[in-house]
Amino acid sequence: MALISPEGLNQYWEQFAVTGFPNGVSLGGIPTLGVNYSLTSAQLLALQTTAVQLVAAPTTTLLGNIIPPAGYAYYPKRLMAEYMYNTTAYTIANANNAFQIEYTGQTTALVSMLVTGLVDQTASTLAVNEPVTPGTKIALTAAANLGLEIKLTGTTPALTLGNGMVHIRLEYNIIPLF
């Protein structure tokens, strides 16, 4: 069994150092990570056509025996959205408009949260959602070594008129692929 130097291990963990959550938490050998991101009013109004990158693709350079041949896949666990009302609530096109976490450049919903009852309110509001249907099957090529992004799905135009912002908190695991 190959041993890794402390320097090599530090390089491995440095890729996770930009999250807003305590880093390096490991449950059963699988790191639990998180990211905080504030979506501005301009980003929210454009979110249906312009996705926002929340988590960059994992580093896949080989550091000893740490990184498996196929790399990594992120597994989102929980999405929290905190709407900060300003002076005008957003108008929503349809009840099907939702924030959706996807792998970068892909379309499979990993976590989805309806925006009705959140950004159309005249008071700051908090919503929490767990991953979409457990057991969802995703092709390895549509998950391996890709980042995570947030989009707004549903009827166009999705959001109009509002001027508040949304703080996104996404918790996720990073899973080694073999």
Protein traits:
four-stranded antiparallel beta sheet, 2 helices, single chain, Jelly Rolls
Notes on the structure:
Strands 1-2-11-4-8 form a five-stranded antiparallel beta sheet. It has helices at residues 6-14, 41-46; strands at 25-27, 30-39, 52-55, 71-84, 91-92, 98-103, 111-114, 125-129, 148-153, 159-160, 165-177. With 178 residues, it is mainly beta. The protein contains two helices and eleven strands. The relative contact order is 0.30. The protein has a single domain (32-177), classed as Jelly Rolls (Sandwich). 8% of the residues lie in helices and 39% in strands. A hairpin with a 7-residue loop joins strand 6 and strand 7. The protein starts with 5 loop residues before the first helix and ends with a strand.
Please write out the topology:
Elements: H1 6-14, E1 25-27, E2 30-39, H2 41-46, E3 52-55, E4 71-84, E5 91-92, E6 98-103, E7 111-114, E8 125-129, E9 148-153, E10 159-160, E11 165-177
Question: Can you summarize this structure?
Answer:
The chain has 178 residues and is mainly beta. It contains two helices and eleven strands, in the order H-E-E-H-E-E-E-E-E-E-E-E-E.
Structural class, judged by helices and strands? mainly beta
How many domain modules? Answer: 1
The backbone outline, from C-alpha atoms, is: elongated
Rg value = 18 Å
Biggest sheet: strand arrangement? 1-2-11-4-8
* Mean pLDDT reading: 82
Characterize the main sheet.
Answer: 5 strands, antiparallel
Percent of sequence in beta strands = 35-45%
Number of helices: 2
